[in-house]
Amino acid sequence: HMGLITAMVTFWLITLVVFILVNRGIWVFTDVSKSMSMFMLEKALGPPIDFVDGKRGSASTTWILQGTLWIIPASLVTFCGLWLSHDPQALHSLTAWGLNPVSTSLTTSGILIAVYGSMGMLLIGSSMHIVPELGATSLATEKNATLMSFVWTLAVIVMFVGANKPEIAGISVMPIATILTNLVLLSVIVNMLLTAASRTRKMPLPAWMMIIGMISAPISILSLALTGSLDSGSGQWLATRFSGTTFFLMVSGAILYASSRGSGNPLWSRSLAAVTMAGAIISINPAGLIEGEIASDFLGIGTATFEPTRNDIVAGSFLLALSLIPIIALSANVLATMRGDDVFMENPDSPGMPEINLAAFMAVPIAIGGLFVHTDYITGTNELTGIHTSLVLLGLWVVFIPASLGSALSIFPEVSGRNMLSINRSRWAFWLMAGGAFSGLVFTMMADFSDIALIEAAVEEENSTANRVRVLGSVLFYGTVIGSVYHSLNMISGTFRGALASEEQNPSSTSISSPYMLTKETTVRKILAQREGKLDTVVVPESSTELPGSATEI
């Protein structure tokens, strides 16, 4: 078995090669393979493809709606998991149906539904709008993408079953979910690559982040398989880290785009965006569960014990610490973009902005926490492993889900053609979700610390203080469940009864679209600063009058 470094280097090389090929448009995109891919994506699927709508934005809308709906079961299952941790008999009546839910399996399945069901679907749905938008083209096939969303939802249901009941009739359940998600991912990737190939202008980094993020999932498993480290403990540990990289890249692309789009400010720094992208690929992301078991479950292989060599420990710790650079770069870039050059935001009521703000704000402290827990686990100290589940949940519910939901909310009016039903309701939902998740999980983490302290002191009797704090934590987390129901209803009602997005005009200046729209007074220095000193910036007049002697408003 080869070390962690070999696997990482293989991953870097393959990613680099793929990026260059996709960027140059060599090899895959000859006309033959283009039409072949389109045939595979649409006609080859037979009758089902005719049931779905192929109009612009329909795929993105379908994915985003399903992603939002998945937040409800994700928060509910997580809530049950948190509740059972202090009251194991709460769902005892379900044993009559042959179900025997326990706190750990419920929490794990809650994490899986949140990651793949809501986060995954919201991000893929957003990318189906962001990539064509930034490339000034349209999605290669809306129909295939719409159809695939239902297969993905099926895969998430299979995951939920697999996390709670690993085998049914002697068949492992998880590998089935893996096969389904990979089929969908493959078709989405081909769809994205075809879309990128038909771009009519240079695509900015956020779009590349989303594409490379998707491609990095199969590349990571491929590089682990090539170096033969999938059946080793450190290989499986790395496989769970790579999924963090995939989602981090996709989230970065989504919130960089959405923070610029929603606030109407140009992207603050392109070089920071490049640092985020390169750094995410080079470093090991501290997001996600610490054990590699989940990777071996998905791949249907035996779980190996985690016995890192000395080199693995050094390289792993270094690459984990390095991951703070892209995370800080992303956080700074998003926060600065949202603030813009003026102190107040142009349209703070724009839905999704508070979520993105929260995610960018919380990303750094939670990444530092994750870094401590992971380094503690790699080095074998294992003093902090007791808090790791609460930390993963905290990262999920105050960084990853708000980031993906916020991005989806901010582009949803453009995608579906209608606004949310009520901005007020989406603000309530934000406070309920964010407040419930943050306070509830912080209390749960306090209880974890209390338990760790008692274990170290070798105290035998039950920790009543921790139990009381856990009750409080899970009750507070229920706010997240209510908030997610609010959000989903607001979005679904919006698709039917929301105000039409075309009715209101708000020209926003964003450096992502090429002409620089002036919406308020500015200086030439600012324009030059935002276009990195290019003199061929297009300045578009807002209204010009023919009356002699009156000025043209620029």
Give a quick account of the main beta sheet: strands, pairing sense, barrel closure. 2 strands, antiparallel
Record the strand order, biggest sheet: 1-2
Annotation, overall tally of beta strands: 4
Oligomer: single chain
Average pLDDT score: 85
* Radius of gyration, taken over Cα atoms and rounded to an integer in Å: 24 Å
Order of helices and strands: HHHHHEEHHHHHHHHHHHEHE
Structural class: mainly alpha
Given as residue ranges, the uncertain stretches (5+ residues, pLDDT < 50) are 505-514
As a percent range, the share of helical residues equals: 55-70%
Tally of contiguous helical segments: 17
Distance between the termini: 64 Å
Strand content: under 5%
Shape: globular
Task: Write the SSE topology.
Layout: H1 4-24, H2 31-41, H3 58-84, H4 103-134, H5 142-164, E1 167-168, E2 171-172, H6 174-197, H7 205-226, H8 233-263, H9 270-282, H10 293-299, H11 310-322, H12 324-339, H13 353-378, H14 388-416, H15 423-456, H16 464-497, E3 516-517, H17 524-530, E4 539-540
Parallel strand pairs: 3-4
Antiparallel strand pairs: 1-2
Summarize the structure in words.
The protein contains 17 helices and 4 strands. Mean pLDDT is 85; it is low at 505-514. By secondary structure, it is mainly α. The protein has helices at residues 4-24, 31-41, 58-84, 103-134, 142-164, 174-197, 205-226, 233-263, 270-282, 293-299, 310-322, 324-339, 353-378, 388-416, 423-456, 464-497, 524-530; strands spanning 167-168, 171-172, 516-517, 539-540. The radius of gyration is 24 Å and the shape is globular. The protein has a two-stranded antiparallel ribbon with strand order 1-2. Strands 3-4 form a two-stranded parallel sheet. The chain is 67% helix and 1% strand. Helix 8 crosses helix 14 and helix 12 (324-339) runs antiparallel to helix 13.
